[in-house]
Amino acid sequence: MPTPQEFHDYDLYLIKTKSAVYPGFDEKEDGGKILKILRVEHILSRPDTCAYLRTLFYSCYQILQKYPYPEILESFQAEQYHFDDGILSEVTRQQLDNMAENPTA
Length: 105
Prior knowledge:
Layout: H1 4-21, H2 27-37, H3 40-43, H4 51-66, H5 70-73, H6 78-81, H7 93-101
Helix pairs in contact: 4-7
């Protein structure tokens, strides 16, 4: 039986290679479908995994804080997603830092 990490790694492999395997892959249209089947809470509950997914959710969280709707923000539990202590993407981390420096931009 594969370990949870092996399942997780395979899921990420499938997502990363989907555009190569499926030439008609559309990030916007198909991305939502992928998110629906991912167990995001489980994946991001480990602070040492999924820097890119965590960075994506963290940037969404920062934007939602600018336009607070309590019913939406309740589903983004920063502690559960390890925004403060989990790994983040080095590639897009600068965008998060810029958002923090310019909160109205």
